[in-house]
Amino acid sequence: MSRFYRSAIAALLVVSSSLANAASITATLYKSPTCGCCEAYVSYLRQNGFEVKAINRDDMDAVHKQNGISPAQSSCHTMRVAGYTIEGHVPVAAIKRLLKEKPAIAGLTVPGMVANSPGMGAFTPGSLPVMTLQATPVVYGRF
Ligand SMILES: [Cu+2]
């Protein structure tokens, strides 16, 4: 094998391993052990390249309190990713935009259990309002 091909292959290996690193986002998700739609959401995240550590908790109210999530902003599972809190069935596109823009907010939420959201059955991308987690929540965008 020529020196050129050897260095070309070495360069390709470097590029592909850095792409793999860029694609996987690590996150920790807290949920109650009996939550089916939480499991469906974890599968959705994993299908989209997230490395998710799912932890069962019997005290989700306490988890919400620890993360400063009010009852009105809360949902069935709470995730921590890159210093942000992601509450409920938030689409991956919203999380990726958050990690890119890095706004000075606590995180994002889709409060409650919205039917049209990832992990909750049929989901039409671009239709779901995602709220910011902050003192005065605003719509972060439709995803
Ligand atoms: Cu749910």
Describe this structure in words.
- The protein has 143 residues and is α/β, with parallel strands linked by helices.
- The chain has one domain (23-142): Glutaredoxin (3-Layer(aba) Sandwich), CATH 3.40.30.
- It is 35% helix and 26% strand.
- The protein is built from four helices and seven strands; from the N terminus they run αβαβαββαβββ.
- The protein has helices at residues 3-23, 36-47, 60-66, 92-101; strands at 25-31, 50-56, 77-81, 84-88, 107-110, 129-133, 139-142.
- It has a seven-stranded mixed sheet with strand order 2-1-3-4-5-6-7, with helices on both faces.
- Helix 4 links the parallel strand 4 and strand 5 (107-110).
- It is globular, with a radius of gyration of 18 Å.
- The N and C termini lie far apart (49 Å).
- The mean pLDDT is 89.
- Copper (II) ion is lined by residues 37-38, 76, 89, 113.
Give a short summary of the structure.
The chain has helices at 3-23, 36-47, 60-66, 92-101; strands spanning 25-31, 50-56, 77-81, 84-88, 107-110, 129-133, 139-142.
**Euclidean distance between termini CA atoms:** 49 Å
Count helical runs: 4
Order of SSEs: HEHEHEEHEEE
Overall form: globular
Alpha-beta classification:
alpha/beta
